[in-house]
Specification:
Blueprint (H helix, E strand, L loop, with lengths): L3 H19 L9 E9 L7 H9 L17 H13 L10 E6 L1 E3 L1 H6 L7 E3 H6 L7 H10 L3 E7 L5 H9 L3 H8 L23 H20 L5 E3 L10 H6 L4 E4 L2 E8 L2 E6 L11 E4 L2 E2 L10 H14 L4 E4 L11 H21 L4 E3 L1 H12 L1
Helix pairs in contact: 3-6, 3-12, 11-12
Length: 378
């Protein structure tokens, strides 16, 4: 009983936070569940061999996603898509995952050939072809899209702050160069590893970010054959000056948590901007706020099924869609199969519990939710 007061306090804090997220904003009649999963297409750690090199070099990855995360192999995708189709709602619909996709990764060979003086990138489909168990991975994406269980949306051209990464490479930083040699953008220290793609050092960087986003959206359309209706900024970090630009590029909905991290010109020092579900300013996309979280890899000791079910219940009680944040890393076993097996086992438990409690639940992709919101306006 000694831990009971702490547990009780955590539950009350969780309820208060859930109420804050769901109490205001647009309400919808149906019980809608959306799974938004980030980082598809982005490199992390290329292999177990590279992970061992990091550890041998004294880099602590014990609490880093780089310990488990990689491009999804063919087997990773097969097993995930099987879970999505295994449990269905009362209408016979399978679960849907919005795969927020990074369209490009650094072209390490060309960057080295240019002596680190210029940045070059390659489509993520090209990167997949360079990995040993990934040659058919994109074809499996396409099959899942046809089966209506997986639909990409735009997460960025790269999951990388190009300016900061190139500056460190050009300075000859030993750790960053070592990681570069392993074909990763890992920094070797306990920071974001340059993942904050749209953070800025000077406001002039915003214009460059706009160009990168526009180029990435064009790559998205060319790759998938349709325009992305939504966007989720890497690390939830972007400047509000871009919001009106997103609308001009065809973005109808911005995925986010309740707190947007607004750049200040200093790394990891941000201003919080609070959002609510359905929020929309004139000439800008509306906001879709994530109000549920399912991240087994982040804390394996936590009961993520129990906590996520509580968040879903609160969302439905306030007539909000349950928008689940669940990153790719939870379902990747290319480096560590136990990581993938745990994530898929817990995901299956979660889906079964949801359908049992709310058999009428409607599964949607983020762009479908955007369309639903547009109908609600009418």
């Amino acid at each position: 009983m000694a831990g009971y007061p702490t547990t009780l306090l955590k539950r009350w804090k969780s309820r208060i936070n859930a109420t804050r997220v769901n109490a205001v904003g647009v309400r919808l009649k149906d019980k809608i569940l959306v799974i938004e999963s980030d980082d598809w297409g982005a490199i992390r750690t290329p292999s177990m061999e590279v992970l061992r090199k990091f550890e041998a070099a004294g880099m602590d990855l014990s609490s880093s996603i780089y310990r488990h995360d990689a491009l999804a192999s063919e087997q990773d995708l097969d097993l995930l898509f099987n879970v999505l189709q295994d449990v269905r709602n009362s209408d016979g619909e399978a679960v849907k995952v919005t795969g927020n996709s990074i369209m490009a990764n650094p072209d390490f060979d060309r960057i080295r050939q240019d002596n680190f003086e210029r940045y070059h990138f390659e489509p993520f489909t090209t990167t997949l072809e360079k990995y040993p168990q990934h040659g058919k991975s994109f074809a499996k994406w396409q099959q899942a899209m046809t089966s209506d269980i997986f639909r990409p949306q735009f997460h960025g051209r790269e999951h990388l702050n190009i300016k900061r990464w190139m500056k460190r490479l050009q300075s000859g930083d030993e750790k960053v160069r070592f990681c570069f040699d392993q074909r990763t953008t890992f920094s070797g220290v306990g920071d974001y590893s340059f993942m904050e793609a749209f953070d800025w050092d000077h406001r002039d960087d915003i214009a460059t970010h706009r160009e990168i986003i526009s180029d990435g959206l064009d790559m998205f359309e060319k790759t998938f054959g349709f325009r992305s209706k939504s966007f989720i900024a890497p690390c939830y970090n972007w400047d509000p000056a871009l919001d009106a630009e997103f609308s001009k590029m065809g973005i109808d909905m911005l995925q986010s948590t309740r707190r947007q991290l607004v750049p200040t010109g200093l790394f990891d020092q941000y201003t919080d901007k609070i959002h609510f579900f359905g929020e929309r300013q004139s000439g800008c996309p509306r906001y879709n706020v994530r109000n549920c979280f399912f991240e087994p890899t982040m804390n394996p000791a936590k009961d993520w099924v129990d906590s996520c079910l509580a968040e879903i219940s609160t969302a439905f009680a306030f007539h909000k869609p349950a928008v689940i944040c669940s990153h790719r890393v939870n379902y990747i076993g290319f480096i560590d199969e136990k990581n993938r097996d745990r994530g898929l086992r817990e995901l299956n438990r979660l889906i079964e519990a949801v359908v049992k409690k709310w058999p009428e639940v409607k599964f949607m992709f983020t762009d479908q939710l955007a369309d639903q919101m547009a109908k609600n306006d009418g």
